[in-house]
Amino acid sequence: MAAPGATLNCEDFSMFQEVLKVMRTIDDRIVHALNTTVPTASFKGKVDATQTCKELYESLVEAHSSRERAIKTCIAQTSSMVSQLREERARDNENLSLIKQLRKEQTKLKLMQSELNVEEVVNDRSLKVFIERCRIHYTPPKVQ
């Protein structure tokens, strides 16, 4: 359910956010997906709600874990860059462009780390809606 061929650009934060936005499409459309796939009482016999809910849950979990992996990969890359720039700054404390670049990377790192918090909120909201609509038909293995 992630964007086809979407890879997170860790260098450019605005592109990083754009790809995450596309990757979060499944969460943004969860209510619609549930409304169109999980039958109401009057249509119960026409659709296998258990299978539908199970497939939707698996798609959600896969989307959540792939986004988390992508974000953590970018955090690791940016963190490594920050460390490298800190070492360079330690050797050349007067280099203003180096100091600017370090600050820029540190800011980007903080923004990426805050995306993990956003991710947690998005995931919780999606799972809450999923459980509300599918709890009768399907109980996911990990949800308490």
Oligomer: single chain
**What is the rounded Rg?**
20 Å
The unreliable regions are 1-5
Largest sheet, in brief, is: none
H-E order:
HHHHH
Fraction of residues in H or I helices: over 70%
Kindly name the structural category.
mainly alpha
Average pLDDT score: 87
Number of strands: 0
Q: Approximately what portion of the residues adopt beta-strand conformation?
A: under 5%
> Termini distance?
24 Å
Number of helices: 5
- What spatial form do the alpha-carbon principal axes imply? rod-shaped
Protein name: Protein MIX23
InterPro entries: MIX23
Pfam families: MIX23 (PF09774)
Family: Belongs to the MIX23 family.
How would you characterize this protein structure?
The protein is mainly alpha-helical and 144 residues long. The two termini are 24 Å apart. The chain has helices at residues 13-23, 25-28, 30-37, 49-91, 96-134. Helix 4 (49-91) packs antiparallel against helix 5. The radius of gyration is 20 Å and the shape is rod-shaped. The protein contains five helices and no strands. 73% of the residues lie in helices and 0% in strands. Residues 1-5 have low confidence and may be disordered. The longest helix has 43 residues, at 49-91.
Task: Characterize this entry briefly.
With 144 residues, the chain is mainly alpha-helical. It is 73% helix and 0% strand.
